[in-house]
């Protein structure tokens, strides 16, 4: 490996380690915990997909999910309309 390449890896490695420590690890650990009945007061037990079944049977979650999808569709359309209107006004 050339010295320039080695130097580049020396500069990039700390950033990659920090990224792994503060981004990837919490996502992986949170994913693991989502399959358990985690509590600070008692032993953690594996429950599999029970948490997700309960989540998708919750009416409030489904309402929030629907609202999020509506927001996902409406906001870009509104932004596009605003940009087109601004271009028309500018011309």
Automatic annotation (TrEMBL):
The keyword Mitochondrion does not apply. It is found in: Cell membrane. InterPro entries: ABC_transporter_permease (IPR051393), MalF_N (IPR035277), MetI-like_sf (IPR035906). Gene3D superfamilies: MalF N-terminal region-like, MetI-like. The keyword tRNA-binding does not apply. One of its GO terms (cellular component) is plasma membrane. It is a multi-pass membrane protein. Keywords: Cell membrane, Membrane, Transmembrane, Transmembrane helix, Transport. The chain crosses the membrane at residues 69-89. PANTHER family: ABC TRANSPORTER PERMEASE PROTEIN, INNER MEMBRANE ABC TRANSPORTER PERMEASE PROTEIN YCJO. This is Sugar ABC transporter permease. It comes from Undibacterium luofuense.
